[in-house]
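Today's session is about reading a structure prediction critically. Students often jump straight to the picture, but the first step is always the sequence itself: look for stretches that repeat, for charged clusters, for runs of hydrophobic residues. Only then move on to the predicted structure, which in these notes is written as discrete structure tokens rather than atom positions. Here is the chain we will use throughout the hour.
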Amino acid sequence: MAEEVLARSGLYFDDLNKIRVIDPESARQGQELNDECKDFLSKLSDFHKITEEFIQRVSTVSHVVEKEKMKAIGARNLLQSIAKQREAQQQQLQALIAERKMQLER
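Below is the predicted structure for this chain, in token form.
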């Protein structure tokens, strides 16, 4: 009976017989929500750590790939320049051969 009078005035007793301003059901739901929020924040923190590690690894791999790409471009350019030099040398030799043939024909 006394609990009903207190409940109407917004006062409640908890499990430890302490007077509370909030009803026990709301207090329980609030505590559950608090626990769920802590769990969510913990999972969010774990997710954040995992994503930071993933980003770090992807960044490292991208730097390695970029270096290898530059090496490949450099090697391709070197091969192209060597091929052009050989063509030029071949044309010079062919011109020299043609010149010598003309000299022999005279």
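Discussion point for the tutorial: The mean pLDDT is 89.
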